[in-house]
Design brief:
By secondary structure, the protein is α/β, with parallel strands linked by helices. 38% of the residues are buried.
Length: 216
């Protein structure tokens, strides 16, 4: 028997109605996820965005040293979550940073359209795991930096944690990423520490567990 369940949803959600409204990589709309899962597990169900859950679990791991943690996942798409004092920041709980419109190659494009794992495959014909050319990683780092600097200036986190498949190769693009960010740094918004997720493959499921522990 279960007391409560949390379901991670990769898209926009209605928490009260427990519905998946729209999904980033699927054409689904208004899916009654909460009701469907409740019929299976026979207990109350809550739903939350998967990136926000990953952010929660990674922030909990470092909360003794950092209270304002920005988690950014760079995988098929791009998304982010802000955790303040160990809680998902409610004012940004539905944010979709990968959808930001930014200048790229002389035109406006959404961030994830030129910096995500999907964009890397489209541009270079290779998965991130297959890329060894340092120049390509410099280009990838520059594209990631274009979005990160906007988040840094607006949110001013104490630390940024990078998750997702592309970020597992952080060591390959860390230096050019930091170089790009420091070139755009302004006195009122210093570049914070940036690190790779500690549990990149399990961050979401641990986030479900952490959210359950916070429920009354």
């Amino acid at each position: 028997n279960f007391d409560h369940a949390v379901v991670a949803v990769p898209g926009r959600i209605d928490r009260k109605r427990k519905i998946g409204i729209a999904f980033g990589n699927r054409p689904w709309r208004n899916i009654p996820i909460g009701d469907d899962v409740r019929k299976i597990v026979k207990c109350p169900v809550s739903i939350e965005n998967d990136t926000k859950l990953a952010a929660l679990s990674e922030a909990i791991l470092i909360q003794k040293n950092f209270k304002k943690v920005l988690y950014v996942t760079i995988s098929t798409g791009i998304s982010s979550g802000l955790i303040v004092d160990g809680v998902i920041e409610p004012n940004l709980a539905d944010s979709e940073s990968g959808q930001m419109w930014l200048e790229h190659n002389g035109k406006l494009s959404q961030w994830e359209d030129f910096a995500s794992g999907r964009a890397i495959v489209k541009t270079y014909g290779k998965l991130a795991s297959e890329i060894t050319d340092k120049k390509i990683w410099q280009n990838i780092a520059q594209n990631i930096a274009k979005g990160l600097i906007e988040l840094i200036v607006i949110i001013q986190p104490e630390i940024i944690v990078l998750g997702g498949g592309v970020s597992t190769h952080f060591d390959k693009f860390k230096d050019p990423l930091l170089n790009n960010l420091h070139q755009m740094e302004v006195p009122l918004a210093p570049i914070p520490s940036i690190k790779k997720a500690l549990r990149p493959e399990e961050a979401v499921i641990y986030g479900c567990y952490e959210l359950l522990k916070q429920m009354p």
